[in-house]
Amino acid sequence: MIVVLLGPPGAGKGTQGERVAAALGVPKIATGDVLRAAVKAGTPLGLEAKGYMDRGDLVPDAVILGIMKQALAAPEQARGVVLDGVVRTVPQAEGLSHVLAELGKPLDLVMLFTIAEEALVARLSGRTVCDACQTPFTGRTPGETHAECTHAPKGTLVRRKDDEPAAIHNRMAVYEAQTAPVIAWYRAHGAHIAEIDAFGALDDVTARALKAVGKG
Ligand code: AP5
Asked: What pLDDT score does 77 carry?
């Protein structure tokens, strides 16, 4: 099953995407994670992406389309994949559609997480992430070792640069201007869209998401 996750920053795409992918037995690809790993490693991709990401702007479409093509061609994706944040502009939606057509794979579901902006700002302002495996947390302190991290050495919990107030504000504006039109594009192209109310306890949101993929 191929699932695209859409929704504003902080809606829970990363958190719920892991759970949906595990329930489906498929990998999850998150362009945000791919780009942050490249920034950390100081690769040419990371050097190009860093400024955009720190400000909360989108990385150019051509860069994302390259990541998308490479990731979707990998054999691990044969049984399906959960695409977290991979589509954020109409050209990216068109690009994904072409890549999937070339691979002969259908897009089964667009999962759209919806939630009020005040809740998003509160979530992002309180978030820490593991700098090794990228797992997000609420209510944990920057500098803590991520005891459950499966990487060696274990990661440390850090605040993301783009979770500073100015960058959060910009990310919300960028979402409205550049990503919200993708929803209309998918509607116009007859995609199956499941709207998930992303407000509420983690497990309640997971139950809604799993129901949408037939695993509830
Ligand atoms: P990315 O990392 O994808 O950032 P984002 O889309 O802004 O999404 P977030 O990771 O902030 O939030 P999320 O929805 O995954 O929520 P999470 O589960 O973490 O991308 C970063 C940057 O990379 C972009 O700004 C851009 O520059 C670049 N980029 C990436 N893809 C791109 C593309 N396709 N095109 C161009 N540029 C691209 O949850 C948030 C917090 O809330 C966590 O602390 C979590 O623990 C908590 N939480 C989650 N659910 C709940 C709940 N139900 N109750 C309470 N707390 C909760």
From this structure: 87
